[in-house]
Design goal:
By secondary structure, the protein is mainly beta. Helix content is 12%, strand content 34%.
Length: 195
């Protein structure tokens, strides 16, 4: 097999779930906690499948499992906050990624302008309403309209890579300077871009 061939490509072979997870683990992600209020109680879950979607209109997306009780609460409320975790929030991530019934026990938070929990110490937050929901296999793909967001902080983000927490280099504490050539990467595609 050549370096450019892929095992099982074009053969209709079944994808091995373990290998699929391992391959996807090669993609480093940030970690978020998606939160809402349901029946006057805070609800939330750890989420790696979060991304920016559109600048105009301002949209983000996340992908909860179809069996998620937290997603059911977000769907009922119609609103949510994305809490981007800072490097020192590993224990917070582990708590919200667990089956713990009261994930907010011992967690300090304040309500966002739309009322969703903003976790104390989070690197950033984005306050949204549910715009649309799409089928995504065993997950949903949820588009959220951004209503407000936090100020920019200089702390480092919590990252997840190859099944474990990681971080950026200690001396890299601020984002790279803005580059005009990245503008097209963050905006809608036109016929002159490859997006």
């Amino acid at each position: 097999m050549s370096a450019h061939e892929t095992a099982g490509a074009g053969t209709g072979a079944e994808i091995d779930p373990r290998q699929f997870r391992t391959v996807l683990g090669q993609f480093c992600t940030g970690v978020t906690i998606i939160t809402t209020i349901d029946d006057d109680a805070p609800v939330g879950f750890a989420c790696q499948s979060f991304a920016a979607l559109s600048l105009d209109p301002p949209l983000v997306l996340f992908c909860p499992t179809k069996a998620s009780r937290s997603w059911a609460a977000i769907e009922r409320s119609g609103r949510f906050a994305v809490n981007v975790l800072a490097e020192e929030q590993q224990s917070t991530c582990a708590r919200f990624g667990s089956r713990e019934p009261d994930k907010f026990a011992g967690i300090d938070w304040t309500p966002s302008p739309l009322g969703s929990p903003i976790l104390t110490g989070s690197l950033a937050h984005i306050d949204c309403t549910v715009e649309t929901v799409h089928d995504g296999g065993d997950h949903y793909v949820v588009f959220g309209r951004v209503h407000s967001m936090s100020e920019i902080k200089t702390e480092r983000p919590l990252l997840f890579y190859r099944g474990q927490y990681t971080g950026i280099e200690p001396d890299k504490t601020v984002p790279a300077k803005w580059r005009d050539d990245l503008e097209a990467f963050l905006t809608t595609a036109n016929e002159d871009t490859w997006l």
